[in-house]
Amino acid sequence: MEVLAGMRILTSVQGENWYNQARMRDLKTLREGWDEVARQERRSAEHLTIEQSVSIYLALCRDMAPQIRETEEIFRRDREAYLAELQSRLRRLNDLRRQQHGNLSEPG
Q1: Is residue 2 domain-shared with residue 42, that is, in the same domain?
Q2: What would the pLDDT profile of 51-65 be if each residue is shown by its tens digit?
Q3: What angle do CA 45, 51, 55 make, to 5 degrees?
């Protein structure tokens, strides 16, 4: 009886180890796959125009509107800070574009 109980414990431990190893392999594969997706996104983003990037951002905002509304109170400060930074970057970009085109008459 003790031998059977010991075999069950050993089998259980071996099965658990196998399961954990399989899960770790799955996580590693997922992580490596995600890294490849991130690399592809970076390569794609390098070829996007600013207008395309803004269009994608606005489409994401539109698609995520229900979740944004649900979490508005929780993340309000973060979103406001992000939007302020985005406006600042767009303003600097606009100023830079005006300078490049020689239109210095409009203040930024």
Answers
A1: yes
A2: 888 898 899 989 999
A3: 85
Domain hosting 23: range is 1-47
* pLDDT tens column, 2-30: 555 555 555 555 556 666 677 777 777 77
The answer to whether residues 70 and 101 belong to one domain is yes
Question: Are residues 73 and 55 both part of a single domain?
Answer: yes
Q: How far apart are CA 26 and CA 14, in angstroms?
A: 18
Q: Does residue 68 contact residue 61 with C-beta atoms inside 8 Å?
A: yes
Task: Count the domains in the chain.
Answer: 2
Give me the amino acid identity at 32.
Answer: E
- Reported pTM: 0.39
Distance from C-alpha of 106 to C-alpha of 102, rounded to nearest angstrom: 10
The DSSP output letter for 93 is H
Is the domain of 75 the same as that of 102?
A: yes
Residue 102 token pair: 């020689």
